[in-house]
Amino acid sequence: SLVVLFGATAGAYGAKLGSDERELILLVWQVVDLHSKKVGTLHKSLVKADNLDLSDQCREVSGLTPEGLGKAEPLDRVLQQFSQLVSSDLKVLGRSSYTLCSDGQLLIRQVLHPETSKKNFLLSDCFYSFYDLRKEFHTCYPSSAAVKDQTIKTMAEYLGLGTDEAEEDFGVWQVKTMVAIIFSMLSEGCNHVFTEPETVKYKYETGPCSKSETVDSETVIRARGLPWQSSDQDIARFFKGLNIAKGGVALCLNSQGRRNGEALVRFVNSEQRDLALERHKHHMGSRYIEVYKATGEEFLKIAGGTSNEVAQFLSKENQVIIRMRGLPFTATQEDVLGFLGPECPVTGGKEGLLFVKYPDGRPTGDAFVLFSCEEYAQNALKKHKEILGKRYIELFRSTAAEVQQVLNRYMSTPLIPTLPTPIIPVIPSPYTIATGSIRDCVRLRGLPYTAGIDDILEFMGDATGDIKPHGVHMVLNQQGRPSGDAFIQMKSADKAFMVAQKCHKKMMKDRYVEVFQCSGEEMNFVLMGGTLNRSGLSPPPCKLPCLSPPAYAAFQTAAVIPAEAAALYQPQALLPTARTPQASAAAPPTVTYYPAQAAQLYMNYTAYYPSPPVSPTTVGYLAAPPGAVAAAATATHTPILPQPGALVRMQGLPYNTGMKEILSFFQGYQYAPDDYNGLIQLSDQARSVLQAPKEWVCL
């Protein structure tokens, strides 16, 4: 038997059903005996929603009113009535089992499952298996329209069924027409058999992922804005009703190994992924979650692993994983098992523990623990911030993907990172940010954070040809992340005006972007914390001479930076250190390199940092051959950094270590600091401490 089911929400209707997160307000159903071709009683039940504010489309299509819905039963009671009435109709027809049949998948996957999950009550087993009438119809009639284009009305028209929608109540016509379509499919000419129902997974299955797997990019999404304490089960609950692949939730970590509020989710097929994208800006608790497309490569980068030890650890399926952080470096397996205690036994004892270590075997203070059930895991989480030895231990829910991610990060960390080869840019001539009053620049505000140079060029269209060489400036915040702003230098003020008129509030991806004409001077004001919009320019809040941030100096040739500004920073966020004109003129330039440390040397009190200007075709940095570096050094008559191997890095120093202790450690292996004056600016006090050193210099 089939139970033909139709429903409607207080919001969108048709192809957008469930996409606006509105509640169910109507259920209509009827039992159909496929063998005797008899039907049971047609039932229509209104559902009382928590929010009775109906959309205009809902009012127009359904004819329902808030007053009428206010007298209805809530969803949990309606579903109880549904089960009772279906059982009674089946008994009358002499049947005992049934499967749901709905018009498409939206009612089951995008409405019923998410809503009941949020309201914390369980759906009966019948809602985890159903037939999609559109797919069955297309299988029976291959020459009909594509599944995604089917509706009840188009299927009825294809069969020539003469039903009049206006003669019946909303919902009643839909169910009667669906029943008529089913009977047509069962006729002698078709003899259609309902054999392969759609299924909804009862729960999310954990499991490992190998980097050698092939992941279809059409099945992966990126969820952004997650609460930091979210687990894979929380994310699976957010996507309740959709089938996530086994081990398909990968929580993303930041550079410190902590969750950054993003996750990559892999679904079983592209159809499920497309339904997941419709949940963009749905809520998890009080937070809305952004959902975007992602690629298989991104998923494998986060979730994939190659370690046999990890694969063996994760081979025990359907285990709850807990991450322990802050363990004493001397902690043993017995210590951890004793800390957890008998109330939360670890799966397999010592085999259920995985300590995270550096490549040389040193412990990191992290460990992962397996528990066989939710109860044991909850008992373990109650020990959050309890003391082991002399340290408090943090415990969090974790995932198989997080295990892979943490192990990949630590195991790929070199014992002694090698210094990069000195770099020079491929830009042939100096480039500057103009500081005049000519309004030949435009500001882009509200860019998607994922937008890159190519997206901006596509956004500007034909005006791309009017951009000055190296005239695209992405603006970064103090953390080195995109701020949503960009400045573009045009060839003339007229070109800037035309771009601002043509592109203002034009869409880029899913956001509109504001475009303002401005000058180089106004650009610098904005970078210092001022505001610029169509109403004009508001200066930075601090105008006292002693408090105002220094103005941005013009960008210098990328390969040449004054020696005292040899800050260790990434090239993509490079910004010259502010100084007086006299100091800039007196400082000789030198060739240097920029590892990613010491970002604090760059004006932390300013609002934004512009990235290095780039040309419309992205300019990168290339490692310079030794001859080129030597030539650059000869041309500037300044010393350059020694080649890799002449510097050493010291790890594990006591926090109270001073320069004297370090020099004593290297006694007899030092060179005179005079050989390095061009590289390291030493104070008089530090220079007096370094007595006749040879071969070593300490950074």
From TrEMBL:
Q: Where in the cell is it found?
A: Nucleus
Domain of life, per lineage: Eukaryota
GO CC, alphabetical: nucleus
InterPro entries, per the entry:
ESRP, Nucleotide-bd_a/b_plait_sf, RBD_domain_sf, RNaseH-like_sf, RNaseH_sf, RRM_dom
Q: What are the protein's UniProt keywords?
A: mRNA processing, mRNA splicing, Nucleus, Repeat, RNA-binding
- What are its GO biological-process terms? mRNA processing; RNA splicing
Gene Ontology MF term list: RNA binding
Signal peptide residue numbers:
none
Q: Which residues form the RRM domain?
A: 320-400
Q: Which family does it belong to?
A: Belongs to the ESRP family.
Specify the protein name. Epithelial splicing regulatory protein 2
UniProt organism field: Hippolais icterina
